[in-house]
Amino acid sequence: MTTIVETTSLSEQIEDALKAEILAGRYRPGQRISPDELRDRWGVSITPVRDAIRRLESIGLVKVLPRRGVYVATIDKKSFKNIFDLRIALECLAIETAALLIPDEKIEEAYHYYREAERQLRETGDRTLLIERDHTLHDLIIEYCDNPKLQEIMRDLHDLNVWARATLVARHPDSYEQALPEHLEIMEALRARDVEAARQRLRTHLENAFRRAYEDWNGGNGESDSP
């Protein structure tokens, strides 16, 4: 049995652990989650489990139905589009500041990460580095946007975006390859401290990412336990 050890907030630790399991696909959309099972598995009381579930409900990852139980949220085409619309608007806003604040060494490090992933893919066909480093650029934008509230909102949106795209990306792993040249173009603009080019290229990249996922949408999320 895995035990949650209190070092900061117990409910925050449970929230992070449950969120990670949802994002990793341990719980599929529409599947019921048992708070009692989580309590027993992690060796905690029911109160921090309920607090964690309330937080995940507030960001849209779970749904609590009175007298019915807790379920992983499901997503439809409209909700998926809404998530991406918000992400495009907010991340393009964030990069306007981040493009001037990201340290040179961080930009160069990220740029070489992508180049190394590109080389590995070209020489061996291995996508491992590409997948591991796919979100490096986006993490930098969030970290250096100099707006704590925007960072909080964008991190929640990122979690929703990862969750929403997970099954689509799993079916279409070449989406990482399609994103790579777009990431490199954005990195080139950041290296030049060209804010407008960085913003425009980021918007194009995010719109392309949405289009690739949306075109492959099959309208379903697998079997559901949710009523």
Task: Outline the fold blueprint.
Layout: H1 10-23, E1 32-33, H2 35-42, H3 46-59, E2 62-65, E3 69-72, H4 77-101, H5 104-124, H6 128-132, H7 136-143, H8 148-171, H9 174-191, H10 195-215
Antiparallel strand pairs: 1-3, 2-3
Explain the overall architecture.
The chain is 70% helix and 4% strand. It is mainly alpha-helical and 227 residues long. It has two domains: 10-72, Winged helix-like DNA-binding domain superfamily/Winged helix DNA-binding domain (Arc Repressor Mutant, subunit A, Orthogonal Bundle); 77-215, Four Helix Bundle (Hemerythrin (Met), subunit A). Strands 1-3-2 form a three-stranded antiparallel sheet. Strand 2 and strand 3 form a beta hairpin. GO terms for molecular function: DNA binding; DNA-binding transcription factor activity. Pfam families: FCD, GntR. Residues 8-75 form the HTH gntR-type domain.
Brief description of this entry?
The protein is 70% helix and 4% strand.
